[in-house]
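Before the break, one more example. Copy the sequence into your notebook; we will annotate it together after we see the structure.
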Amino acid sequence: MFRDVSSCNTYNYGDALYWDARYVQEAGSFDWYQRYSSLRPFVRRYIPTSSRVLMVGCGNALMSEDMVKDGYEDIMNIDISSVAIEMMKRKYEYIPQLKYMQMDVRDMSFFPDESFDSVIDKGTLDSLMCGNDAPISAAQMLGEVSRLLKPRGIYMLITYGDPTVRMLHLSRPVYNWKIILFIIPRPGFERPAGSSSSRSFLEPVPITEKGLLPADFVLEDPDSHFVYVCKKMDETEELQSIPDHPLMADVL
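Here is what the structure looks like once it is written out:
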């Protein structure tokens, strides 16, 4: 019941050998789901440019490069594929803001507790959810993410997984995360002519007490992506302290 098969196929996306072979065969860069330009309002709102950022499952994406161009100063990129990491090390050898290490997100013990102000995940948890022992892998990864976050740090998850398949993993009390949800359409989506919807994709989406979307919520794009902003609360902090008001389209 815990393995998310909604967008899985026969590939084992949690296997380093699969990714090594893929990066050998495919040249160039590729960003899963969304480019930085679409995610920028969320990133800039919740992650200061001075943050020490951990990008998990970086692959050969341009997102970290785009963040540096936007003012981010310190991004550690990790991936299970040594092929991808060596490729990116060579590509960004002369950009000191970008660092790369081969690492499995299920065991990031190389880093001490509370090493990062924020962790960004664009499709990595999804990959584990398609692999073998998915619930164990997810718990290992999220436990490590929680351990590495400083108090009040942000874990930003960009995923195809709606709350029915993601909240049961994210809402475990041990993480003590306050979660804000945004839903954004896939790149290129346009509302149908005559659509009466006025909802801005930059507005947070309400979540019920059970961690689900309201029964009357209409998903305009069935292939939408979900952005979970998870703030690690400290023991004395009120859960309401994370802002959940609408974002500006251009957050500076």
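The chain is about 25% helix and 20% strand. The mean pLDDT is 85. Try to locate both features in your own notes.
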